Each structure stands twice: as C-alpha cells, then as structure tokens.
Amino acid sequence: MFLLFQYNKGYTPSWIKSKYGAWYLDPSSWKLRRADEPLEDPQSIKDKEMSESKKKSLAMDEQLAPLHGAKSFKDFIEKKDTRVPEFLERVAMFQAKAIAEQEAAATAESGHVASNSGVGSTKAYSITS
Q1: Which listed site, 38, 83, 90, 106, has its alpha carbon 20 to 30 Å from 72?
Q2: Residue 60: helix, strand or coil by DSSP?
Q3: How far, CA to CA in Å, does 88 sit from each of 31, 53, 63?
C-alpha cells in the first residue's frame, strides 16, 4: 500500500478537463476554458474592455484639446451643420474648461494689479468752494 501511494504521488494526467460555456449563454460566445476556471459573463468582459478604451480615449481627447486642428475641425463641422462626433464634444468641453481657467487667471491677475496700483501713491485733492 505504501509503494502504491508513492507511485501515485508523481502522477500527472496527460489530459486536462475542459468546458466551453453555459446553456444560458449564446453558443457563439463559448470559448474553451479549463474546468476549474470560473465562467465570466461576456457582457462584463466587453464592459471592462470598453472602460479601458474609454480611459485611453479621454486621455487622447485631453491631448487634442489645445491643438488648433481640433478647433478648426469643430468649426468646419458646425459650418457644414452635420452631427458633431462624440470625441469632438469632449474636446470642446476640455477647450471651454481651459478658456474658463485662463479667464479666471487673467481676472485674478488684473484684479491683483489694480488693487496694488493705489497702495503707495499719494494724491492731493483740492476742494474749491
């Protein structure tokens, strides 16, 4: 009995049990997988891939926003009166945000300069009756 146990300890099967899919899923979505591997919903896999591509798309849109070509393309689309692509709407949003930040910075800068201009000056006012 002891010898049999030692012999079976080193045994590895030449085949691996596998499954394809579940009865409730579309057979075209079935893929070969190991039996011990959990079954994942194909829709959730697509959502994960989509979210990763959306992140990359947002990063790309943020890079496109300051470029002149993006603004020119938006003007062209508006001039032709056609549907504005989704990415161009996001680029326009980034552009509007950048313009608002620039205006806020310019307003703060000009307000700061205007308030400091009268600090050290002495002005004489004469009142005549």
Answers
A1: 106
A2: helix
A3: 37, 16, 12
Burial of 26 (C-beta count, 10 Å sphere; 0-12/13-18/19+): exposed
Nearest to 87 by CA among 121, 118, 63, 68: 63
How do residues 17-70 score in pLDDT, each as one tens digit? 888 888 888 888 888 888 888 888 878 888 887 788 888 888 898 898 889 999
Q: Which helix (H) or strand (E) holds 33?
A: strand 33-34
Domain boundaries, the chain: 65-103
List alpha helices for 10-123, DSSP H.
42-64, 68-80, 86-117
53's tokens: 């591509």
Nearest to 90 by CA among 65, 126, 110: 65
pTM exceeds cut of 0.90:
no
Phi-psi region of 81 (alpha: psi -120 to 50; beta: other; left: phi over 0): left
Asked whether 87 and 57 are in contact (CB, 8 A), the reply is: yes
